[in-house]
Amino acid sequence: MADKKLKLGVYWGASCGGCDISTLEIAEKILKVIEIADIVLWPCIADFKYDDVRKYPDGYIDVCLWNGGIRNSETREIAELLRKKSKVLVAYGACSSFGGIPSLANLYTKEDIFERAYKTTESTDNPDGIYPQTSYTVPEGELKLPEFYGSVYRLKDVVDVDYTMPGCPPTGKQTWNVIEAIATGKLPPKGSVVGVGDKTVCDECPFEKQTEGVRIERFKRPHLARPDLTPKTELKDKPQCLLEQGFVCVGSATRSGCEAQCLNANMPCRGCYGPAKDVDDQGAKAASAIGSLIDTKGDVKRGEEIAAQIVDPVGTFYRFGLANSVLRRKVPSPKEQT
Ligand code: SF4
Ligand code: SF4
Ligand code: SF4
Hints:
There is one protein chain. This protein has 338 residues and is of the alpha/beta class. The protein has 3 domains: 6-101 and 151-183, NADH:ubiquinone oxidoreductase-like, 20kDa subunit (Rossmann fold, 3-Layer(aba) Sandwich), CATH 3.40.50.700; 109-149, no CATH class; 196-307, no CATH class. The protein contains 11 helices and 9 strands. The chain has helices at 18-22, 30-36, 50-55, 73-85, 94-98, 110-120, 172-183, 282-291, 300-307, 313-317, 334-337; strands at 6-12, 37-41, 61-67, 70-72, 86-92, 135-138, 141-144, 148-153, 163-165. The strands form 3 sheets. Strands 2-1-3-5-9 form a 5-stranded parallel beta sheet. It has a two-stranded antiparallel sheet with strand order 4-8. The N and C termini lie far apart (52 Å). The model has no long low-confidence stretch (mean pLDDT 94). The structure holds iron/sulfur cluster (3 copies). One iron/sulfur cluster binds at residues 201-202, 205, 207, 209, 241-243, 249, 251-252, 263, 268-269.
């Protein structure tokens, strides 16, 4: 791979576009990418047609970076197409790796989502309750729309994925490290998580945990309270861990690799690098770590009241990966299933 120009593809599924933009965070190194690679698909920057991609021979694309989850039949169809056309398929970013923020929609049914999006939003005027249809006949012929799935899925739920690269979005530095590894053929074994570290965000954090005796009596929200940033001699001249100060931080359940960039801006970690190595369920791990710090004083009710101060627990603990959790989604009630 090192001796010839790579054929590189970049594609977006159920994505916000941020991952496409993040690839430009490699800044001037983008010129190096153009030196080593021909871009053969990147809908965000040029008007590539699916039919052109269908005409590529199988395995034509050396590496395809796929961002975004699988939300509808179109994203699934293109995932299957790009799997066939790519030698190496990389799940790039939290959405393709874990479902990302869009997979919080797995708390709702397809019907709930359609009702809100097409009927009850404050800016919607749809008195006849008309929803998108997969097929509609007009005088000129049949118009088709992709089928909207009942859940958001990870890329690996629909096709075989060679590498996973977390982050919302991945940092420019990690993106470049992975591109370099691809260009020099130094990628780790298939199935590896790339562009990350082996530790947790806590290991890269500029805040320091007190070893014992800390209990949380009140949870605070970053836009409503200021953290104490004073370095403490007993904490290696660092400020005290934000979680111990009462700010919900999921760094202990999250994979390192971002250089703790939120913590360096005095914000708690939200978990976008996904579960730490050997952690199966990031949200459960974070909830358990945080729960063990609650100052119950041996009183369950008091513990529950303190825990209830955490606003939007599912969104807090599974912000980037409900589709990657053990539960994957809220199970619809029998009524919702009909
Ligand atoms: S991982 Fe984050 S930046 Fe990338 S597409 Fe998803 S929401 Fe956007
Ligand atoms: S819990 Fe958060 S603030 Fe505390 S050490 Fe870990 S990453 Fe840093
Ligand atoms: S500190 Fe946490 S939320 Fe922030 S970039 Fe790193 S992994 Fe993502």
